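TA notes. Do not distribute before section.
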Amino acid sequence: MNRPEPTADALLDVVREVGSELHPARRLNVTLESALDRDVGLDSLGRVELVHRLERRFDITLPEATLLNADTVRDLLNAALAARPPGAAPLAPVEDESIAPGTSGVPEHARTLVDSLEWHLATHPDRVHITLVGESGAHEEISYARLREGALRVAAGLLDRGLAPRSTVAIMLPTSAEYFYSFLGILLAGGIPVPIYPPARASQIEDHMRRHAGILSNAQVHALITLPEAKGLALLLRSQVASLAHVATPAEIVSDRVERIRPMARTDDIAFLQYTSGSTGNPKGVVLTHANVLANLTAMGRVLGVDSNEVFVSWLPLYHDMGLIGAWLGSLHYGFRLVAMSPLAFLARPQAWLHAIHRYRGTMSAAPNFAYQLCARRIDERDLEGLDLTSWRLAFNGAEPVSPETLEEFAARFERYGLRREALMPVYGLAECTVGLAFPPLNRGPKIDRIDRTVFANTGRAEPVAEGDVRDAVRFVACGHPIPGHQIRIVDNAGRELPERQEGRLQFTGPSATQGYYRNPEATRLLFDGAWLDSGDYAYIAEGDVYLTGRAKDLIIRAGRNLYPYELEETVGNIPGIRKGCVAVFGTIDPRSNVEQIVVLAETRETDVEIRDKLKRQINDAAFELLGMAPDDIVLAPPHTVLKTSSGKIRRAACRELYERGGRGAIEHAVWWQILRLGLAAIVPQLRRSLSRAAEFLYGLYAWLCFAFLAPATWLAASLTRDARSGWRVSRFGARLLFALTRTRFAVQGLEHLPPAGTPYILVANHASYLDGIVLVAALPRQLGFVAKRELEQYFVPRTFLRAIGTQFVERFDLQRGLEDTERLLALIRRGEPLGFFPEGTFRRMPGLLPFRMGAFVVAAQARVPVIPVSIRGTRSILREGHWLPRRGPLSVTVGAAINPTGDDWSAAIELRDAARREILMSVREPDLAHETVGTKATPQ
């Protein structure tokens, strides 16, 4: 009988099989270079199972060193090849796992965007990468080979023009093949692309170029690749942009001298600069490295289950991060097809977007909220004839505030055309985090939180309101959970992290986060709060979901464009009859259309009706010339209406609140009364919030005093007891007394599910805080042996106490000792001693249930004892990781029904783990983070 050969493909199949059993919710892209712990997620028992399965599959015996020393899948392959029986023909070691030409795949080890391109070129050069859809519906296809050829010619042309390494080149082009060639050509030449948006109409070119001078100067642009229509005026910018040496069209920039192109990009090099459109006073170019971009694409791909068979249909402009990174660079890295349309094609005929999804069987597409609203309300039924949206599995809604009404209207209208409501995905991201930061779980559909409007306005507390409740409610849309490897927190104005359902400023951190703004140290300084970055947005977190409530910054988002008020305020202030420096421009959501509107509030002393009408026309014209769009409302108000700070700065948020409370008529009449009413109304909430913060601080100090009083006495009493049961009773009394003194509401349910005394079982609980151990001691009436990390044995105080209550210490890092500890635990459980585990092995500050380690479940299966799932709620809010001042809050413990093993093998252990996890997830109501990367940084325990 022939032995099965341990080939690379066969071995990879076994590794994926075991990895998928350990992490069923995670999409594993395993290659020969994948690390067994970080990438595949194998703990010590997972390694044992993998080695046993390899030995059975290939009929070999692997040396013990393989179990201890193998770091990667390739190490296992080499060990398997070496373990073949004597006399067998040698197999050549596999040096490369490149996919055969014509098949799909992902460049797992790409370190730059250029690496991704080169991998696909070597693997499947003729595979179609981009399909450009024209106005008539005709399309142009670009393969990887054609893309690289066009990019090389641009790179050669730039080098002919003296482009130095890491010099910047601006691209001001519409969606076209030339755009893609130019962007990658700049990278191949060693430069840094700077995408900027082109003028919408020829009549705007002069003003458009003038307003871009600030960006070009800040970026120190060496060359500008632009439209033929804009070239003449762009040449005039040289007098304003000292670094600008060349202005050329795509046809002029190319060269055939491609033989000298040797791309040398590194992972920490800048991939491109992402400037926010619309601001010229203080340009902010977000610095994004290749590492940032690839980290963001990888994290988003894992969450979304992306592979190379997707089809992304996009009309989003390529100067916008969602269109450039989310659509194109995502397709470049993962190798799926991008169907690209012109933004103007969508604006002219919104149905063209939907029909493109139908025609090309698009699986993914993205758009701002206004686009979904436009489709839901403006498209005639006759234009939707024959539409089929059944292929659309991911419909991202982001880049501007997401409206619950829009989601409901879009889902209701297009459900009959095959759209699944579960496909709608409200997401959150920002350029400072590359593009994506928070995504909801797959196939969940929109989740909308209905909260008490009055409570929220007065305290910032997002108090839930049931559907049947008659109280005035406001609705916010859940934008999901942070992508793998990233974290989000909500802080108050003092930088103190807030509990769940409390509104504050959203901060984030992770490998996709920018290093700062290009040549703008002041803006970069304001962006960072230690290791955290300030998003400029207000939000709250509930059950792990992020809910965006507003913007702290003055940015106005309209039709997918980011607009800043400063220039328009200055321009309007220069109009004769308007009081200079007394103009406020802000955005507000129209309650009827749910679209953000631009409001101009300007002071004037003019009272004549005709003069005021003329002023409004002048303001309207100025806004159109500057922004390319007219304001939605112009309010002419008497002097001293526009609110300012003591230093004279415009208080735009306060002006917006005044406008929304009083409306335009109230501003134009009896303004002093509105301001007085607004001021008085603000005093009470502010006083209430200040008192609340002071009370929280005092409570935290009091809680620590209680702990400082009880802990030494409890430690001493437990240490002096004769046995673990007595030590447990003493500790339980101390824990319950602590909760009583701190007035902590403490509830325990399901104690009847605990087996009778003397019956062995395995208890598994979720882990969210340092308080979890105290909570379990307080909740459980009978002693059980906690299983804790051996590092705690090094310290006298915890070692003495933990031993006194019967804790068992196990090794986490030494595989051999870890296996010995497993055998010791098996012996204890077989003697009738129950054991308690935190199978996550660690906890972190963000809500969510981390992947479970297998130790508890393997012991339970092999010993044939039941697993008791226990859910702990409230500890994370009371004492979150990284914070040492406890907060007031309720605690609850729910003991679930016993889960009995169906066997004593690995499969039975997997079943136990999955059943326990389902039970705990139902009770804790937190996100399931089993899909996250194993290498996500967590708090060490």
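Switch to the second chain here.
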Amino acid sequence: MSSAARPPATSIGRVRRRPEVLAPAGDRRALAAALASGADAVYLGLDEGFNARARAENFSLETLPEVAAQVHRAGARLYITLNTLVFEPELAHVERVVRGVAAAGADALIVQDFAVALIARAVCPGLELHASTQMTISSAESAEVARGLGFTRVVVPRELSVEEIRRFAAGTELELEVFIHGALCVSWSGQCLTSESWGGRSANRGQCAQSCRLPYDLVVDGAVRDLGEVRYLLSPKDLAGVRAVPALVELGVHGLKIEGRQKGAAYVATSVSSYRRWVDALVASDGAPSEEALAVLADDLADMSLAYSRGFGDGFLAGSDHQTLVEGRAPKHRGVYLGRVRSVGANEVVIVRDPLDAHGGGASTGGRALSDADAPSGSVSSPLPALGGDTQTGGGAAPAQLELRAGMGVVFDDGRPEADETGGPIFAVEARQLARGQQALALRFGTPGPDLTRVAAGQRVWATKDPAISARTEKLLERGAPDGRIALTLSAHGEAGTPLRIDARAGRHHATFETSSALAAARGAGLDALLLRDKLGALGGTPFHLAALDLSALAPGLHLPVSELKVLRRALVTELEAQILRGPTREVATASVLAQVRDEARAKLAALPPSSSGDAPALIPLCRNDAQLEAVIAEGLPEVELDWMELVGLARAVDKARAAGLRVTIATVRVQKPGEEGFDRRIGNLAPDAILVRHWGAVAAFSRAKPGEPRPVLHGDFSLNVTNGLTAAHVLSLGLETLTASHDLDALQLDALLDATDASRITIALHHHVPTFHTEHCVYSHLLSHGRDFRSCGRPCEEHAVSLRDRTGESHPVIVDVGCRNTVFNARAQSAASLVPRLLQRGVRRFRVEFVRESTSEARTVLAAYDALLAGRITAHEAVRRVGTHEQFGVTSGTMRVLG
């Protein structure tokens, strides 16, 4: 693909570079809509698997060459998502898919699993690798791990603010791509185990069950708290990051990414065209958009709301705002907020504008709407209307922005979004003036229309659909992708008596042709710039536009028949278009590389220093409070892992454990954002015997030995997502002594991993509550305070214990870490006790037992049972009976599907 299809870089004023507008494509219509709307790049998944949106229609590997040619002719780039974890038996199929993608001419792979990167690098070294947001590369330090594998771009987590992205960009040479629009996951991508734990299907395998969109009850200190209509406590509003775009353009990000591979063509068309116009306006104005551009954007926001919106906000781009991220009343499309019902007639509903309510996202939970004045230092600033509290109005498009017309759809919100809400198309609209200047709209409906007996005064009313958007989308699809998006540079060479030679370049593609006739002296102006631009630049109906013409190597005063120029132009266009349709010229291995990559993995394992685990099995307790540490000391165990909510208490716990003669391992936070490096430094200052590393930044930081200082032993936790031998060997080679097997593995998949690596370096979660959601959103701050973040929340987490009760009645504990992130743990612990005899035989030596809120006596019971099991004094059945939990390892039912 011609690099000329990339947005041209600029370096003037506040615009460092024109970023790609990157569009989702879940099917053929969405792809066509993206290209017709001016997308600079598209990303899509394959039927062949390893795709984080497995429920999208997707594309086949067989038709990928055709798709790549379609994308490239439109002047765009094509990125293929192989962004799931991979199990050991699937590696051969991964190789076949990567080879097919490279041969088809795709520009890059978006990858989660290191094994895919290792295989891709061997199959096709020239194929670009982009680190998926699923990889949780969340800081410049963690980006070093990706860079070492050959990645050139990082898709940054959606939890980062603009200021944090700025710090990230300042610390790495890798390209950064930022999600700018669409649905937000409440959990950090790559760190959500909810679907797996509760539904037996893994989000890390493309099978997200969207548990965040379900209703939950808030349990505070053991009692259910009534929140009224607020029940969807983990369902974020959608992201409309328009206010952040000027700052992101200024700091030089390479890509603005639109989420939505499960959305339709109308959603793709409205979002891509809107962000295309907004970016173009910013570039044209050097980051200072006109009033006209702002008015267009406001209209675009209304259209995007009607195409699909759960209510728009800044997400985390303006910093954390726990009062507005989650509104909590509905988990599905709402559109544009119109007002509340005033009265209901036979076929008419009168609604009143309710602007204050439009900003009351957290009102029923004690929250409030926030303005830019409330924003933390370094947050987004913009001339646009505030989005932070604007939960119902389409992200800054005030109700008056929407021209309500006959044919548009509305829905009446009675506070029960899980029910079949009534609504339908409007037959007519009439504006009315009420007493004291209050504005009202009378909405009339045809027959049959909505069941107005279900509509009552006070209900909220939403505009949910505009047929004009669908009609515009269909016309757009009929027109197809615009021509002329690829920049063409021509240079002319020649003198009297020689042919005219034209060198043509379109990015990295190049073609040279000469005329059949020789140049002769001209009687007039001859081949001047005006004539050559006119004849060689007549590129209508082609993918090209003439960007530059260099005549420095062409002698003046020469003549050539115009017909020869036309022949020359057609030849150049034909050759360059053929090159572009074929895609990048890269070397692709034809023979299998998997054996070679596995040999390299074995060599990495062989080069590791000896493990200090020893031959005897070790029970490793992980404690989160003093009561559990007391249990470990009382049981006489030699080692403990500490995962503390705050650092002062952690220091005291370290002293207490050392006084009892325990070897101390300290767990890092699960993710690290730019500016949070101090957490790891403070852990290092406590001089633990070992560190349980949970994020890639800690891997990079702690593996670097400081001169004259001993380096602590490093153990990798489950959050590093190791599911196959290739990834295990690479991660261990980064300086880790052991790894914890991913919770995405079931017993069969774990066996396959152990076959492919050194089992003594694998830690098994023997007993634990699966950490389901790991989220930047703080339930405590949102629902127990008025605070937007840790600066203003009053720290209710230090006074209360919160759980979320699901529809089955299970209450799942919510624990806060030192970075104020919440982890929702599964209510029930699970045990791998039945696997212990076989795992011991396989050479596994480290078995972790994790506690959440267990008391001293509960923790002692658990530790005693598993200690006896590992020593062979009791059976697995008896161990499970004593601890009173259910037996399971990993997912409820295996998710491994050997493909190919």
